[in-house]
Design goal:
The chain starts with 7 loop residues before the first helix and ends with a strand. Helix content is about 45%, strand content about 15%. Helix 5 links the parallel strand 2 and strand 3. It is globular. It is of the alpha/beta class. It has a single domain, classed as Rossmann fold. The protein has eleven helices and seven strands. The chain has a seven-stranded mixed sheet.
């Protein structure tokens, strides 16, 4: 089974979460990942060249996002987590979230209905709502943001694994739409650089032909500034992988070579991929 659309990538990534969860030294536990990935996820994994070699960055992404979400909820008063293109993410079921927190998953009906059906007998730790809709429809998106924004004061938006599949104008339209809801305080996402995109295209172009990557702004997080969003923190995948002991094979070579690189080049590599927390600027 090959990746036929973006929704299929959710099964692929769930396989990595299942693999990590089975380790005795797992950096997170997702007891639902294997069930959600299903045999289709395992079949997709087999079609991706060197699939295991690219597992660490996605495992690190999950762990770092877990940390940042819990921080915003427990220490900064987020009262709603709005997870756009939620896929097969099971955080409302697996993270120890406050019971009063409202969590909203948004995705296309096919993948979201599949997830809620698979987990229908499981209890979430917080108030949970699933919204099956197409976020590319501006009217539907605006109505959803307006409804949720009016009911909450401190909203954390997540777009994990989404932006890279969008074109720059689509990301810009999304950013402006999010900023128009004044209670949307934070935007948590992952971000790739043009260098990373070129690497993926060289090594995995065939596997992702049906779900091509587009968004990797050369200006990095500065792309979001005109949209009303500024960088609060950037968690480099390379740095976090070392901290969490989930580095890609050969990472030691980069560390060795980086000692001879100019500081600017080292920073370029550090920002090749990362998890970004954006905060809304004043209107």
């Amino acid at each position: 089974m090959k990746i036929e659309n973006v929704s299929d990538t959710a099964r692929w990534v769930a396989c990595y979460r299942a693999m990590e969860s089975e380790r005795p030294d797992a950096i997170f536990r997702d007891p639902f990942a294997k069930r959600l990935a299903g045999p289709e996820g395992a079949a997709i994994l087999k079609t991706i060249p060197n699939a295991l070699s690219i597992a660490p960055p996605l495992i690190v992404r999950t762990a770092v996002l877990d940390e940042l979400i819990l921080d915003r909820v427990n220490h900064h008063g987020a009262d709603l987590v709005l997870n756009l293109a939620a896929g097969l993410d099971a955080r409302p079921w697996r993270l120890l979230l406050p019971a009063e927190l409202h969590w909203v998953d948004v995705d296309l009906p096919g993948i979201l209905n599949y997830k809620t059906e698979m987990l229908r007998d499981e209890r979430t730790h917080c108030r949970y709502e699933a919204v099956a809709t197409d976020l590319t429809e501006p009217g539907t998106r605006t109505a959803l943001f307006k409804r949720l924004g009016a009911r909450h004061q401190r909203v954390l938006v997540i777009t994990e694994g989404l932006l890279i599949y969008l074109k720059p104008d689509q990301v810009a339209n999304l950013g402006r739409a999010l900023h128009s809801a004044t209670s949307f305080r934070w935007w948590l996402t992952d971000l790739a650089s043009p260098r990373l995109l070129r690497y993926i295209e060289r090594s995995h172009a065939t596997a992702f032909a049906s779900a091509p990557f587009h968004f990797a702004p050369a200006e990095g997080t500065a792309f979001f500034r005109p949209l009303g969003w500024g960088e609060e923190s950037f968690r480099s995948t390379i740095v976090e992988a070392k901290r969490l002991r989930r580095e890609m094979r050969g990472a030691w070579i980069f560390r060795l070579i980086s000692r001879l690189m100019p500081a600017q080049r080292v920073e370029e590599f550090r920002r090749m991929s990362g998890i970004v927390l954006l905060t809304r600027d004043s209107p």
